[in-house]
């Protein structure tokens, strides 16, 4: 609605401008040869074409169009403005966006997707993107980004897995599972020389000098760790005997009886469509549903693995296929709703920094390969 109001305002501004010799500059030319989407009014063809470097820009010689005629062309006509003259007859002066190159098609210059990709990258085989989708190669992923204006990164090489068990991360990276039990390769640091010493208790009942030291322990050993609560570990600790941050709730680990500070207001992401199997052996629609029940019961329930629970996990032949179908369906839904167009980038660094405690892996300062896709946070371990 705001865009429509803005368009009307610009039209009236153009109408009220003093009339000079010139025409109208248009954003694109339709297949019928008519001009569409007005950019500027009362400009010469030279001015229009020198300012607009896109290959689809056109110009029409109507120097004194009436307000009614402009309104008709912009909002009522399915064809657009007649007598449209294209600005560019070749790729000489055309400037294309990143990963696109100008090519002549049917005598008209067009920007087509041509991302830089070497033969070596093509030969490396399939990759798993940060949207948990398999691509034939990194080149195919880059081409998808160019076509749909997304910013998906390579998470790891090979087909997408449903756990860290068979994931081989590039050098210096570690595999962690998100709240849905799906794996991601991340980079974390073991240097805590500048860390402010505030002791924390880990879910392994060990006290660490700071959250950085706990994080470094994970990086060195790969053992899954999370902060149970701030301060040193206490013998026979209970929820009344510890103090959680104001945005956390105290839950009890049913196995160790240890109190855990957990976030009971998790932010759900587009991948919340993925069902998870909880450590209580119950299937949940998504991670948020599981966390909601956990908070209601005041008992810590974590993701055992992605997908629905079954008696013998490795005996379930259709589980991976089911997960892939869900991810594929979600991807198609995003395309239909226009999510492949411009959308805000969500930094995982911010998410990690804001969720240091309970139910989330402790990586507030790490560099994450998954900048774009929009998972809630990294998995609670234990």
From TrEMBL:
Residues 112-162, 186-235, 255-311 form the Kazal-like domain. GO terms for biological process: cell differentiation. Residues 1-22 form the signal peptide. PROSITE patterns: KAZAL_2. Keywords: Disulfide bond, Glycoprotein, Protease inhibitor, Repeat, Serine protease inhibitor, Signal. GO terms for molecular function: serine-type endopeptidase inhibitor activity. It comes from Mytilus coruscus (Sea mussel). Pfam families: FST_N, Kazal_2. This is FST. GO terms for cellular component: extracellular region. InterPro entries: Fol_N, Kazal_dom, Kazal_dom_sf, Prot_Inhib_GrowthFact_Antg, TB_dom_sf.
């Amino acid at each position: 609605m705001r865009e429509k109001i803005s368009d009307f305002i610009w039209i009236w501004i153009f109408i009220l401008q003093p009339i000079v010799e010139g025409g109208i500059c248009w954003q694109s030319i339709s297949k019928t040869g008519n001009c569409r989407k007005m950019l500027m009014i009362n400009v010469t063809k030279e001015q229009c074409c020198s300012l607009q470097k896109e290959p689809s820009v056109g110009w029409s010689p109507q120097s004194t169009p009436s307000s009614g005629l402009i309104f008709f062309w912009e909002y009522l006509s399915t064809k657009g403005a007649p007598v449209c003259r294209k600005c560019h007859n070749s790729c000489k002066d055309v400037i294309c966006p990143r990963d696109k190159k100008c090519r002549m098609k049917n005598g008209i210059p067009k920007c087509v997707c041509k991302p830089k990709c070497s033969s070596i990258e093509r030969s490396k085989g399939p990759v798993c993107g940060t949207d948990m989708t398999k691509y034939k190669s990194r080149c195919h992923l880059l081409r998808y980004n160019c076509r749909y204006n997304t910013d998906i990164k390579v998470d790891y090489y090979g087909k997408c897995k449903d756990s860290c068990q068979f994931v081989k991360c590039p050098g210096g990276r570690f595999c962690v599972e998100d709240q849905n039990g799906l794996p991601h390769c991340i980079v974390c640091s073991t240097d805590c020389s500048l860390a402010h010493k505030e002791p924390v208790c880990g879910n392994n009942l060990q006290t660490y000098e700071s959250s950085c030291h706990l994080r470094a322990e994970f990086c060195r050993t790969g053992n899954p760790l999370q902060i149970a609560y701030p301060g040193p570990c206490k013998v026979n600790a209970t929820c009344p005997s510890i103090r959680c941050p104001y945005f956390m709730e105290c839950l009890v680990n049913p196995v160790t009886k240890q109190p855990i500070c957990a976030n009971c207001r998790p932010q759900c992401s587009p991948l919340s469509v993925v069902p998870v199997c909880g450590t209580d052996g119950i299937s949940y629609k998504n991670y948020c549903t599981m966390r909601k029940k956990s908070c209601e019961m005041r008992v810590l329930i974590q993701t055992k693995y992605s997908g629905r629970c079954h008696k013998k996990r490795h005996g379930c032949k259709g589980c991976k296929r089911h997960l892939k179908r869900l991810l594929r369906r979600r991807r198609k839904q995003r395309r239909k709703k226009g999510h492949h167009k411009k959308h805000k980038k969500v930094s995982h660094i911010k998410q990690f920094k804001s969720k240091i405690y309970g139910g989330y892996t402790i990586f507030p300062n790490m560099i994450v390969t998954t900048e774009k896709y929009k998972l809630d946070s990294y998995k609670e371990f234990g």
